[in-house]
Design goal:
The chain has four helices and ten strands. The protein is α+β, with helices and mostly antiparallel strands. It folds into two domains: 33 residues, no CATH class; 118 residues, 2-Layer Sandwich (Phosphorylase Kinase, domain 1). Strands 3, 4, 5, 6, 7, 8, 9 and 10 form an eight-stranded antiparallel sheet that branches. The chain is globular and about 40 Å long.
Length: 159
């Protein structure tokens, strides 16, 4: 029993010594042991969580792109993320001079969409060839998520 206590105390002394000698950061150790925390991004005023292992394809991102529409002043922003397994996530947010409502999200999703709630956010699940989608309205903006794996939506949507 005494040997176990001695080993544990020695371990803590070594850790304390490392922290003073080489600017040891306990957060870095926890990231290695338990996985790094999710990255959070804001796109056009809407927050998203990016799952571990995903990185942005920056040359695919669009910010406040104006859409040529004579009836509506409309712009959109989008970001694309991928991981080494080939999974991808596309975040899209559009805003106009007319605030979006639930019918916008339903129309985008199509007739065969399923109304569902993910992480407390009500919206519409739909499928396109090769992709799953989820559309919803937040703060008067239309949000459309697309992914190769619909389970990723649970990791991305921030209520």
């Amino acid at each position: 029993m005494n040997k176990k206590i001695l080993v544990i105390l020695t371990f803590f002394i070594v850790i304390a010594g490392m922290s003073t000698a080489c600017a040891f950061n306990i957060n870095e150790v926890s990231n290695v042991l338990f996985g790094s925390p999710k990255e959070y991004v804001t796109l056009a005023g809407v927050d998203f969580a990016i799952p571990n292992g995903f990185s942005e394809i920056e040359n695919e991102s669009v910010y406040n792109q104006q859409v040529d529409n004579p009836v509506l002043d409309l712009n959109f922003s989008s970001k694309v993320y991928t991981n080494v397994s080939g999974d991808s996530i596309i975040l899209s947010v559009s805003a106009s001079d007319t605030p979006a409502n639930d019918s916008y999200a339903r129309d985008i999703a199509g007739d065969e969409a399923n109304k569902t709630t993910i992480n407390g956010v009500e919206g519409y699940e739909f499928t396109d060839p090769g992709f799953n989608g989820f559309s919803y309205v937040k703060n008067g903006k239309l949000v459309i998520l697309s992914s190769t794996d619909k389970e990723l939506f649970k990791n991305v949507i921030v209520s």
